[in-house]
Structures are given as C-alpha cells and as structure tokens.
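Write out a sequence, fold above all:
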Amino acid sequence: MYVLHNKKQCFKEIDKDSRKEHREARMSIGLGYYILDSSHNLVFEYLPSGESPSFDHLSKKIKSNYSELLEHKGGVTAHADGYKVGTNLKLYVYFSVTNRLYYWSLIEFKQHHDMTAKKDDEGKGEVKTRVNGGENNDGMVQKYLLEKIDTIILEYFDKDTITTTKIMNNYDRISLIFHNCVNGGLPNVDYLTYENRFKDIIPMRTDFSSVFNSTAYNLQQVVTQQHLGGGGGSSSFNGRHDNNFNTTIRRGVDDDMIVPWRNGNIKNAKNELYIDMKEDIHVNFRNQIKNRKGRTYDNNNSNGIRVNNPSCMKLMNGYITGVIDVRSYLNGNPIVEMKLNTCGNDMGTPSLHPCVELEGDMNGDDDKVMDSLKFIPPDGKFCLARYCVDLNKNNKNAVGVNNRDIGLVNVTFENGLGPQRDEFEVRLNIKGSTMVEHIEDLKLKLKFVLNHSAMSCEEDSSTKIKVLRTSHGRISVVSGSMGGDEEEEEEERDNDDNGDGNNYGCRTDRWEWIFDKETATGSLPVLRGCIEYSKEYTGNVNGGSDSNIGSAIGNNRVDFELATVSMTYSYLGQLASGCRVIALDLVKSNVARVFKGVKYITRATEYTVETC
C-alpha cells in the first residue's frame, strides 16, 4: 500500500518519521521447517541455516509451554497468530487433512533496514511511504506456504496421498522442494506459482543416481590420471560432468515453451485426460419437530409417531465447497475446453488456475465464468478451479440443490416418544439414484445432553440408554459422564444389538451409529432407543416418590434428551450441487485419439442437525 504526499515542505518531516517507522519494522525469516506424523513424531526437517534449531530442541520448548499442542492426535485447530517460543521466535502449525501430516514453520523476526520513504527522481518532493503489514499477516503467509508445499509434494510424486515412508525414502528431493520454495527464509513466489515446474527443476531418482554414479566414476578417473601424471583428466571430467548436468538437472529449460506452466515437446505414451470433481457439504440444520403437550401415542405401536419429511428441517447455515482436479497426460500443447452444467447455482467468484483463458468478466456479476473453461493444461496433476456455493442465498434459478434436501442422505430425529415419553428415534432417508450405487463410510454421532428444566439425577447414578431397534449398522458407545466435556479421556466399546432389547448402553453422553463400508441407496435406516432412569433422583417432583417419576415424564420433563446428530458420508457418481460436465473436447491437438474420464465425489464433512 502506497500513500502519496505532494508537499515539498513536508518532505523532511515525513522522511524523519519514515526512518523512525523503518527502524521499528521487522521482517519474518523462516528459520526451520518440520513435517510430523499424526502422533507428532518427526518425519522430516529442513534447516536452512546453521542457527536453525533441531526438532528435538524445539519439541522440548513446546512441551514445556504448549503441551496441548502435542496431545491432540490427528488434527488440531492451530492459533492463527502462532505460538511464541522465544523472544523473536514464533511457531506456526498447519495440518494436512489429506495426508494426515503436521507442518511446522519456525519464524524469526529481525529488524530490516529497507527505505520506507524516498524522494522521487525528478525532485518534486513526492514521497512514497510503504505501510508494512507486520506480524498480523505472518500467520496467513505461513499457512499458505505450508499448504502450498503440501500440494507441491503431492503433485510432484503424482499421488493422491503421501505417506511418511514416501517422505523418508525421498529425503533428498523433499529437501530440494523446500530449498526452492523458501529463498533466504522468505517464500519464493516464482516457484510457488507453477507447481508442475518442480519436475523439471528437481530430477527424478534415476537422474540423481546417474549424476552421482557418473560423478564418482569421473572423480576416480581424475585421481588415477593425476596419480599417473596424466594431464587430460580434468578436461574430460568437466566435459562429462557438464553434459550430465545439462541432460538431467536442467532438462526442459531449453525446450520451446509457449506458456510458463507447460514445457514444450512433451511426449506421453498414455494420451489420457481425467477430471475429478469433488464437493464437500458444510450445513447446520435446526430440527423443527417439537414434543408438544397433549400429543397422543398408540400404546400398541412401539414406533410412535414417524416423521421423515425434509420440510421439518430448517437450514441455519450452509455452503458447498468444490474443487476440480485434472490429470493431464497429453502430447504437445493441446487446448482443452470443458463445458459445465452448473444447474443455476451461484458459484461465487471461483479460484482458477492461471492456465484458464478468461473470456468473461471476473467481477462477481458474470455467472457464466464456470460454464465453459478453456485452458492449456500443465503436464500431470493440478487443480483447475475451486468454487463455493452459498446455500444461505435463496437462488430461485438453482435446480441442482434444495436447501432442505442437500445430498442423498437426510436425517431427522425426535424425542419424547413412547407411552412414557422416554424414547427417541433417529431416521435416515437415503434416496435412490441411478448414478450412485451405495453410500460409503456412513456414520452418525449422537449427542445427549441434560435437560436442566427437568429433574436432576446424581452424577454417579445408573441412568442407561437402551437400544430398542436398529435396522442397520452397529452402535459404538463413547464412555464418559453424562453431558460431560468431549475433551475428556474417552473409551469406546461396541454394542452388537440384534434388536432383542436386551443390550443396554452404558451411562454416556455420546453414541456413534456406524454403518457398513457400503450402504445401499434407497434404504430407510431407523434407530430406536429409550432412556431408563434410575431411582436415585435428587430432585423432588410431586413429593419425590417413585410413583411420580412417570407423571413427571408425562408432563414432558425428561432428564436426558438427544440434542445433536452429526453425520459424515461420501459417495461416487453425483455432486451435491448437481453440477456435471457436459462436454470435454480438445480444440487443438495433434493426438487422434485421447482417453477421457470424469469422476464425481460428494463428501459430507460437516453435517449437523440440532434440536429446537
């Protein structure tokens, strides 16, 4: 950000103030980078300076000051402003959900002496003052850098996920990736822009071996010739070494490149083009089914009232994030055109790869940007576009998604069922689809809370939750105190319920309804249970006698109730927004036949239904 001052008489004062500001300004320098597994064991460390501390030294400081950072296994929401581990040192943490890896960056703040005020060349007294962002932007910069490095590693090895073994077996190449991404402790923007160029900058393992082997052989020849008194060894060595270096380390630099993200004269034997469209659902519903007084129940019908209508769900907040990944193995410099059917959804302002040729106006008013994408693809795997569908906006033109019916799986639940109103029921509606065969990894988390308006029972009472009937899957109970903190130490056990009503859940505040690996579409799973109250009540309801417990329950006073249901699942073949690829053509290509494929993946990562 630059501020212009046009008054000559203010130049000296401004210059004086700017020098004072410049003395107080600080520069953040990367001092060390570390990769850890989900259990916080060191996998890789990159120490660009001799002053960089090792992981063992740094971990001792973390354990003494921020022990909670090492206690979480497999994911933690890190502080955006980092962790202060020294006078001028801060640690920033990024967790890769895809690879289940932690990335740490240790930053040192130093005084820098760049001029923040200059007089213009013509001497007109026009002063340009730079406003520095300071430490406030360091968290965002480090998160972007670490996330970008994680993406670069995936694309360099052409993998969907990277393992710790892969990193340790390729320690040299991972070090070179960090070396090119960080220049003098600062992010190297030039190399971070085009990830696919790392394959040309950093040779593959076979190239490394050929360079090392030939170098060792040539060194041996030079030593032998010098020992025998020969004088031509040095020239021969330099020539062979330069030749190997040019053909391996610097391969592709002299190629005829028409765009900076793709090398010229690429030859692939595959001639394949794959498109992967992935969407993640993030929604929070309010369950509008209420337990009203005076509702009658059929004592002969153990199912009570059954409601499975999406109209009883109210969307409180929701959005769908989408990403379009491309794997391109094409010869030459082809031009690909992909046409999408967005189903009238507002895709917002998408984030596009630089290879996309923009024909529309990216000002937020042009809804046709995502309808047709024309691009010269980089070689290998890359992210073509990212978008977000805001479900809070009532878009009448959208036909691909209904704010009350998002995805193929809907969930509703109700409390206060049964003749004594101590039963609850969770119902799923897995819609049928000709494009989706089954739902994968379907799991529900049930949260029970204490109804404070009702009677209270002792914390050590033996209140139990009983499974009456379950049509699918199994129940996994997370033990702990009723209504307790989720961060407490938990212990899981499985209840294999056969619907005979003899299996009781332990006194707990959370259940997990876990389905099989694959659940057929078009099914209607149901979970029915009841809460068995103990006789140890501290509250006095109508005299506090046991005979009045049923009366209290009948007046809609229940100790514990199902308050929140969280659901996760995934399926292939269809997107939650309804978007689809309607055409994938090669406008310009020398290849006569290309194998093309499109895959759709929908994942419910944050799907929550809460009670009124």
